[in-house]
Amino acid sequence: MSVLKVPLVSVVAVLLAAGSLVAPLGAQGGDPELRGAHRAVEASAERYREIGAFCADFAQTIEVKLLGRRVESSGELCRRHPDLFSMRFADPEGDMVVSDGERLWVYYRSVDPDQVLSYPAANAPGNHDFVLELLQDPATGYAPAEPATEVVEGRECRVVDATPGPGARYRGARLWIDVQSHLLRRLELREESGNLRSVTLSGYTFSPPPADSLFAFTAPEGTQVVDRPGVGR
Q: Once rounded to an integer, what is the mean pLDDT over residues 207-214?
């Protein structure tokens, strides 16, 4: 399988179709593994609410089914509650996905250096803000994975499978939640296209909080900004 270093990020269309994932505690029955999975998700959601803002290093891999290729990228991901988000790529350098709370800006310099895509944040394609999508607006579908625990980047994690609810733009997800810090260490998304996306997070920082400049976007000189109406429009 060849390796292609370009930013196939639908980390702009699989992770933010909010309202897709967690069954209420009353529906868990007596299964201790199921209760453990739900407790892990709830603890993680609460941790991110308490944090409010963070940055982390990301490494992303996408297995592109139709092309038989693996797409790799890396950089820094930052988030500030409730709706500020940025992915700034070190590889491919200069690529970025930024939500300033009003608009989502997508600029893949490595693919098309002359074009910027802009969406209304409320109607942006899903998959960029996975914390919001997978943890902060739970609806239905968490279950323990097999194996129930794994080590990611030296950290023991509870592994949880998520079945998307109506309107989600992916077929399924798997989360690796740190059993001590309750932070997401890895996630996998099975997209509608059949592609498999994996994002690993490391090097979390919380203080000082992310600078305002990380959530601001100015179109590079000479680029064309293409306004898009958003999903379902």
A: 95
Distances (CA, A) of 187 to 42, 51, 102, 160: 16, 19, 26, 10
Per-domain residue ranges for the chain?
2-211
Task: Measure the CA–CA gap between 150 and 109, rounded to whole angstroms.
Answer: 36
* 191 or 60: which leads in pLDDT: 60
Residues β-bridged to residue 87: 77, 97
Residues with Cβ within 8 Å of residue 131, at least 6 apart in sequence = 48, 79, 184
The DSSP output letter for 201 is E
- Kindly give, in sequence order, each residue whose CB lies less than 8 Å from that of residue 30, ignoring residues fewer than 6 positions away: none
Q: Tokens 């592109």 belong to which residue?
A: 64
pLDDT digits over 129-159, tens only?
A: 777 667 755 555 788 898 899 999 999 999 9
Separation between Cα atoms, residue 61 and residue 188, nearest integer Å: 9
Percent of the chain's residues with pLDDT above 70: 79
Dihedral over alpha carbons 162, 163, 166, 169 (to 10 degrees): 70
- The number of angstroms, rounded, from the C-alpha of 25 to the middle of its chain's C-alpha atoms is 24
Q: Which fold has domain 2-211?
A: outer membrane lipoprotein receptor (LolB), chain A (2.50.20)
